[in-house]
Amino acid sequence: MKVLDPQVALISNFEVYQHISDTRAQYKKWNEGKRREQQLRVPANLFHLQTEILDYLITKPSPLREQNQKQHYNDEILDKLLSKLQEVNLYEKLFKGEALCIFNIRPSSTATLNGIIESMETRFTEEEQNRIVEIVAEVLGHDEPEEEEE
């Protein structure tokens, strides 16, 4: 993804995760087998900031928490979600930020969706709300219920 105007572009948590992971891999590859004075120098706190951001992005309840193992998010998945929403004429009713939040949060119920979409009850019927949740579960998957500890 190329950002043409940084003031209007929105990127997903997956794109942030992917960029940081790729950047770290590039640094490791570049510095591999080189003496200390030949290694690429980066700001001292860059590695710490990258680690903190990646930890945040893969901590529960984030949908990216199993990205390293399952690879269920990829470059095409956001387009697939938006096209599914367009097929049932729901994408046009969503604001760009709301669609991005749906992708980032992966709501599993209409109650969670209500926190994402402004004035949801007046803009969407109950059937449309349920359809959005169904499409999200179909495209992005859903969390498996956890077994309660005794």
Descriptive tags:
single chain; 150 residues; mainly alpha; elongated; disordered C terminus; HRDC-like_sf
Please characterize this protein's 3D structure.
The chain is mostly helical. The protein has helices at residues 13-31, 46-57, 67-70, 77-87, 96-105, 110-116, 120-123, 126-140. The chain is built from 8 helices and no strands. Helix 1 (13-31) crosses helix 2 (46-57) and helix 4 (77-87) runs antiparallel to helix 8 (126-140). The chain is elongated and about 65 Å long. 17% of the residues are buried.
Quick take:
This protein has 150 residues and is mainly alpha-helical.
Number of helical elements:
8
Number of strands: 0
Mean pLDDT: 77
> How can the largest sheet be summarized?
none
Query: Which structural class is indicated by helix and strand composition?
Result: mainly alpha
Uncertain segments are 145-150
Blueprint (SSEs and pairs):
Layout: H1 13-31, H2 46-57, H3 67-70, H4 77-87, H5 96-105, H6 110-116, H7 120-123, H8 126-140
Helix pairs in contact: 1-2, 4-8
